[in-house]
């Protein structure tokens, strides 16, 4: 059977400057529990901020990769179209900005 509050032993701690503190064992355990909860809440808060920054960096990297992949796809479409043309028309398809292959590849900047 647990001890009643009257039977619990008190601990006295004397600090610098003559300050003293008296507490029962359950008070110290409760204090340690409160400190642990506060520390966990702080770590969760910090993790939330860091994870938001990491997500923003990840999204920026994915956008960059998507833009690069789009450019590669357009170039591949253009080259496939040019290679499908007869040999005598290939030079014109590559150099003319309004050629059929450029219109099919949907990019005039190549």
Keywords:
110 residues
String of helices and strands: EEHHH
**What is the SS-derived class?**
mainly alpha
- Overall 3D geometry? rod-shaped
Q: Count of DSSP helices?
A: 3
Strand line-up in the sheet with most strands: 1-2
Strand content: 5-15%
Mean of residue pLDDT values:
82
Could you name the ranges where pLDDT drops below 50 across 5 or more consecutive residues?
A: none
Q: Whole-number radius of gyration?
A: 36 Å
How many individual β-strands? 2
Distance between the termini: 85 Å
- Helix amount, in percent? 55-70%
Folded structure, characterized:
There is one protein chain. The radius of gyration is 36 Å and the shape is rod-shaped. A hairpin with a 5-residue loop joins strand 1 and strand 2. It is mainly α and 110 residues long. Helix content is 68%, strand content 9%. It has helices at 25-84, 87-95, 100-105; strands at 10-14, 20-24. It has a two-stranded antiparallel ribbon with strand order 1-2.
Write a short abstract of this structure.
This protein has 110 residues and is mainly α. Helix content is 68%, strand content 9%.
Helix-strand layout with pairing:
Blueprint: E1 10-14, E2 20-24, H1 25-84, H2 87-95, H3 100-105
Antiparallel strand pairs: 1-2
